[in-house]
Specification:
With about 190 residues, the protein is mostly helical. Among the domains are: about 60 residues; about 60 residues, Arc Repressor Mutant, subunit A (Orthogonal Bundle), CATH 1.10.10. The protein is about 60% helix and about 0% strand. It contains nine helices and no strands. Helix 6 crosses helix 9.
Length: about 190
């Protein structure tokens, strides 16, 4: 049974034609994923006398040489691997959270859904239509306005807000308005 071949990252032919310093910059930044600061330290440690601003300029030039496909290949070749082993040196334990709702949340969501469905039935047909078009069908305000014969998107927005206010009152939920509170003079 033979050993598995070790895959080594190959330089693109356009990069192989560059000067030694530029190839080393490419390896640090694009293969190893070093930051500019880390690359600068690494290069200086390996005997390259380069100013930081020169490293920035050369990195920008190299990046402009790369095609979008080459950039994609480079981005997929450096996977970030996190460990679940808390004994691994330097690794913070990774908490895995179950994304599914708790049983209490399921009951609460079902209750809310029933309340909303009942309150929707209590609205008049025009308000129900506006809400269905905007939120169930995902249409834009201008599309809603065109379909129901309103003059513009602003009118559609105002009518939908009024319908939602009626819905809130029927469900008996406090009004929650995201963002900053408007002053009384506005």
């Amino acid at each position: 049974m033979g050993s598995l071949p070790v895959w080594r990252k190959q330089l693109f032919s356009s990069i192989r034609l560059l000067a030694t310093l530029d190839r080393e910059i490419f390896k640090c930044i694009f293969h190893r994923g070093f930051s500019l600061q880390q690359s600068w330290i690494e290069l200086r440690t390996n005997g390259f006398d380069i100013a930081f601003h020169e490293l920035e300029e050369r990195t920008a030039t190299i990046q402009k040489m790369l095609t979008s496909r080459q950039l994609w290949l480079l981005s997929t070749s450096n996977p970030v691997i996190e460990t679940l082993d808390p004994g691994c040196e330097g690794a913070a334990p990774l908490e895995v959270r179950d994304p599914s709702p708790s049983p209490e949340d399921v009951v609460l969501l079902a209750s809310i859904q029933k309340s909303v469905a009942k309150a929707l039935l209590d609205l008049d047909e025009a308000d129900r239509l506006l809400i269905r078009l905007r939120f169930y069908r995902g249409l834009s305000l201008i599309q809603v306005a065109d379909l129901v014969g309103l003059k513009d998107a602003q009118t559609a927005d105002r009518r939908i807000r009024d319908a939602l206010e009626k819905l809130r009152k029927r469900i008996r939920t406090p009004e929650v308005v995201p963002g900053k509170h408007k002053s009384a003079s506005v």
